[in-house]
Design a protein that fits this description.
Order of helices and strands: HHEHEEEHHH
Number of helices: 6
Structural class: alpha/beta
Number of strands: 4
Strand content: 5-15%
Number of domains: 1
Distance between the termini: 81 Å
Radius of gyration: 21 Å
């Protein structure tokens, strides 16, 4: 009789999920963990994007809190075919704008957006204020000795 340990079964399931053929994922954009806007029909790899999204969130979570990583599921829109590669945040809506599909730039955008979910605006403002206060209260030893 063949039996699988739960950890192995989960790995096999994840392997199956992330090896779905690209055309199937293209046909089911609603199954993407983010929104997509591709008006110019730029070529991109949906399965690669899902893998990058998953790994970026997982690595960031384990970096922030290795002992108990948070579950990160950032919401954003990937916009392909834009005039510039940029990260856009307006009215609490996040977008990753890419001229064409670029896995590295996409990954950086995912991490930036996921981090915004970990560090809330109030905390970010507090850290920024505290950084300036600490920098202003620090003396340069070279200046004191002259």
């Amino acid at each position: 009789m063949f039996s699988l340990r739960p950890a192995i079964a989960v790995r096999i399931l994840l392997l199956l999920v992330f090896t779905i053929p690209t055309p199937l994922v293209h046909a089911q954009n609603s199954s993407l963990p983010f929104q997509l806007s591709n008006p110019k029909n730029k070529k991109w790899e949906a399965t690669e994007a899902v893998r990058i999204y998953t790994w970026a969130c997982d690595l960031l979570a384990r970096t922030i809190r290795p002992e108990k990583p948070p579950q990160l599921h950032p919401n954003f829109r990937l916009v392909l075919g834009t005039d510039a590669d940029e990260f856009v945040h307006e009215n609490n809506i996040f977008e990753i704008h890419l001229k064409s599909w670029d896995p590295e730039k996409f990954s950086r955008g995912v991490v930036l957006i996921a981090m915004s979910g970990v560090v809330q605006t109030d905390e970010l403002n507090r850290l920024a204020h505290q950084s300036v206060s600490l920098a202003n209260s620090t003396l340069d030893v070279r200046r004191v000795s002259h």
